[in-house]
Amino acid sequence: MVVEHMHQNFDADEPVTRRECYLHRELIDRRVVGVERDIIEMKGDLRGMKESMEKFYESQEGKWTKLWYALIVIALLIAAGRVFDVENLFGLM
């Protein structure tokens, strides 16, 4: 499919009318405004993703902290169990 360009029959010696200049400027302005709008939307999307990721990592950090506390308590209980051997304490052997 061939797209016809508005300057298909371009002649370098032919003068350009004010209307053509105006239409060309309007076309460029619309493209620039569209790109600016897209950039603003992308910035908003990226900001939202960043906030979501920060919330996710904060929630995960709390879970890891709880897990470390549980592992430390278990290790202390195991160490205490080895120091105070229940069989020797009650003289069951």
Account of the protein in words:
The structure is a single chain. The longest helix is centred in the middle third of the chain and has 66 residues, at 18-83. The chain is rod-shaped and about 115 Å long. The N and C termini lie far apart (94 Å). The chain has helices at residues 18-83, 86-90. With 93 residues, it is mostly helical. Helix content is 76%, strand content 0%. It has two helices and no strands. The chain has one domain (18-90).
- How many β-strand stretches? 0
Strand content: under 5%
Low-confidence stretches: none
Order of helices and strands: HH
Set down the secondary structure blueprint.
Blueprint: H1 18-83, H2 86-90
Spell out the key features of this protein:
93 residues; mainly alpha
Provide a short characterization of the protein structure:
This protein has 93 residues and is mostly helical. It has helices at residues 18-83, 86-90. Helices cover 76% and strands 0% of the residues.
